[in-house]
Amino acid sequence: MIDYLVAMINVRIHKAKSAPTRGASAVEWAIITAIIAGVALGLAALIRGLVEAQSAEITSNFGGGDSGGGGGGE
To answer: What is the DSSP letter of 62?
Structure first.
């Protein structure tokens, strides 16, 4: 995911540098792209944290997975 974002930023920077009016427009594109990348990375970190928390809760509710299952009761 990070590789995709870096590639996208590089393409936008290249387009901005090669455009005939590249002054303020290039800066605006760089800022917008950085903001979007930051938001995407923040959401990815948030989602990862939530998934890991749910995984830990599920594992603890099922005894941690160390009991090896079970069967019959005799």
So the answer is: T
pLDDT value at 33 more than 90: yes
- The DSSP secondary-structure symbol of 21 reads S
Dist CA 50 CA 22 (whole Å): 41
Residue labelled with tokens 């990375």: 41
Give the per-residue pLDDT at 41: 97
Angle, in degrees to the nearest 10, between helices 2-18 and 23-61: 170
Q: Which CA distances in Å does 56 have to 26, 43, 60, 68? A: 45, 20, 6, 18
